[in-house]
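Request: Have a read of the protein record below and say how the chain folds.
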Amino acid sequence: MAKFVFTPNDSSEIANDYDAIIIGAGGAGLTAAIQANELGLKVAVFEKNAELGGNTNRASSGMNASESLVQINEGIIDNKEDFYEETLKGGGRLNDPELLRYFVDHSALAIDWLSDHGIELTNLTITGGMSKKRAHRPASMAPVGNYLVSGALEQIQKENIPVFNNTKVTKLIRADKQRVTGVEVETPAGTKTVSAKAILLASGGFGSSKELIKKYRPDLVDFKTTNQPGATGDGLKLAEEVDAQLEQMDFIQVHPTAQTDTDHVYLIGEGLRGEGAILVNKSGKRFVNEMNTRKIVSNAINDLHEGGAYLIFDQGIRENFTAVEFYDHVGLVSHGNTLQEVAQAIDVDGDNLQATVDTWNDAVKQKNDAQFGRTTGMDRSITKGPFFAIHINPAIHYTMGGIHITPKTEVLDTDGNVIPGLYAAGEVSGGLHGNNRIGGNSIAETVIFGRQAGMQMTDYVRNNK
């Protein structure tokens, strides 16, 4: 079967006005475009990059949801209150409770909505900070992000929704300090003003902006990033220019497992640990509960002062996390027919590594990790050769802060009032995650709040004709 290829529209086709303009072609923007179009709006998507998908393309683990039919089909009895409480705890109890409530209550519905659009997430894994398997992913166990983007673009092509790449929004137009009425865009053909009744900022975070990292978290300015190069906070700057309120901008997540030894930084998805991988130090010993929150695991790696750590896993785990095939293809994976061979390949003590894995396998068998209290990601032991290792380091991964929005995705100004006609969804918005994002919640956020934005923009346009 031929691989689906999406061709963006030519910028010469940009109309003078739309019902809704969506800035950013990642998960949130594409979801909003589909939803608003289905509700009858004339929609256009503007993306500054040549490539579509943004950071969503790089997401690998899954999309969290509770009380889903997929969970029930797997015999997993979950509840929204646990999902809410564990996300709140993971975020240091600094999450916006109203945003979090809407998020949790609409997560299973978002899985169903995707399924209705041919994007089926029927396999489950688990991420750090969660007590149940909530991370939904494709049956093939392929990385969720690119699968989602490809599926959304297929739907967008089917519905003839215009998507323009290499089209950068440089200004939001606001009438009389009231409602937002349009945008200025730079295209390969020049600058153009486009009118709209509603505008959605879905432009992502600022994990690739040294300027903003230095401004809000100078302690992280020398960290590498897993973000795509276009994640430079453009939407935040556009919002500030119309007096939008920003919040929690110093809450920047460092992901514990990234491969930073090459010029290109690769995120090693949390799902690998969720399927059973462990972390060891240069002595070949475990040093942390690998399924704790990202903040805690990242700090534990940094506290080693050893230039990172190693993920250890076997063929059985590899078969349940197919992103490893890509990691191996680009040369990130060390191999060994035995643990001793892997230890030699990564220059750690072989006897220690063997003893560590033996102890871990016993913990899996007994369902009791006496060393570090790990209780999840223990479905399989590390016994099936060959064996593998990936060298990892923490890297900037996600910016939890952003534009202050209501649960309806409406943007608030610096006085706390709604800016009429302006909406925000996805990583460009702040408040949902608190000071630490749980793995699997970003993809869920893009779909849940992307849909919400599509619905709320439609409601606004219908009421303001």
Summary: The chain has a mean pLDDT of 96. The chain has 15 helices and 19 strands. The two ends are 45 Å apart (CA to CA).
